[in-house]
Amino acid sequence: MSLKNRHLLLMGAALVGLAGPAPAQDYGAMLQQQIQAMNANIARGQQMVDNNVRQRMADPQVQAGYRQHLAQTRAAGRPPMDYPTYTYNWIYTNGYSAQGIAHARATEAGIASAERAKVQQLREAEAQRGAAQQQQRDGYARNQQEAGRQLTGQSTYLAPNGAALVLPHSWQPNTQHVHQGQTYRVDASGQYHVLATNGWWYPLQSR
């Protein structure tokens, strides 16, 4: 990417900024809107740069500098810059001064850092979208599985340690059951409990 285009891209990115969090289903539209806004800002920036360059191309000082540039590059056997590019760099480096060149290099390093940050932010947004979509798929799958269990007379209960237990939901209050080697009790209110190895009963939460 050319120096000028990188400056314009950074300008567009800075003007657009990052949108706030959006639902996963709106991510594509959000990204497209950002791209359109950035392209519009880049086009405006390009027009401003082109106008400025055209004005400075008429500057006798810039013209004299370009003649010197032509002589130097030809003497060294190197291809010269075209006049618009030379003029743009003249503006950017404040007449190719040492201070201007140092400032341009620092700006270039900042642009590169900003570009890396934008790429990282995009990757993070894509990862968040993927995670949200996976959560939706996982939730749908769990709901489908639970619906299937309901049809067979079973439901999922969660133990205090987070373990998921699939038990018949038809057990009546004030009853005790041994199921798959584990002892359970249903109290008078219909609350399920599991008997732990320490002899204590622990309540189960239906999911």
Written description of the protein model:
- By secondary structure, the chain is of the alpha+beta class.
- It is built from 5 helices and 7 strands; from the N terminus they run H-H-H-H-H-E-E-E-E-E-E-E.
- The strands form 2 sheets. The protein has a 4-stranded antiparallel β-sheet, with no helix packed on it. A 3-stranded antiparallel β-sheet has the order 2-1-7, covered by helices on one side.
- Helix 1 packs across helix 2 and helix 2 packs across helix 4.
- It is rod-shaped.
- It starts with a helix and ends with a strand.
- The helix/strand order is HHHHHEEEEEEE
Number of helices: 5
Major sheet attributes? 4 strands, antiparallel
Percent of residues in β-strands: 5-15%
Concise description?
The chain is of the alpha+beta class and 207 residues long.
Topology, pairings included?
Blueprint: H1 3-16, H2 27-57, H3 60-75, H4 83-92, H5 98-151, E1 154-158, E2 164-168, E3 175-179, E4 182-186, E5 192-195, E6 201-203, E7 205-206
Antiparallel strand pairs: 1-2, 1-7, 3-4, 4-5, 5-6
Primary descriptors:
207 residues; four-stranded antiparallel beta sheet; three-stranded antiparallel beta sheet; 60% helix; alpha+beta
